[in-house]
Amino acid sequence: QRQLVESGGGLVQPGGSLRLSCAASGFTLDYYVIGWFRQAPGKEREGVSCISSSGGRTNYADSVKGRFTISRDNAKRTAYLQMNSLKPEDTGIYYCGVDSGNINYCLNQYEYDYWGQGTQVTVSS
User: Fold this and answer.
1) What is the mean pLDDT of each run of 10 residues along the chain (125 residues)?
2) Based on CB atoms within 10 Å of each CB, which residue in 9, 82, 89, 120 is the most buried?
């Protein structure tokens, strides 16, 4: 059974930090680009960050550059999103996905083959 499971979300004050995890089971991540996306209430899903299969290349949405860091540990079958200096605008459900395509398009949700169920991130005072 192939699964992706996100964890690490929660409620945090503006300026705070969270670290999200995306754990794969039933398959390895070695050959996939991994992406993090988020969806705020009433809005479309948007790409946040993505990372190449080896971890050598990363992309970030302009809105999170300098604040978020994506990483992966293929041996642990896990990807991470470190989120610092959080803003209320970062609130949403965060999803991880795997992409068998090209990293050049990895902030495009339509590139992705499989998604986790998401984890809620709420940034509020």
Assistant:
1) 96 98 96 97 96 95 98 97 98 97 91 96 97
2) 9
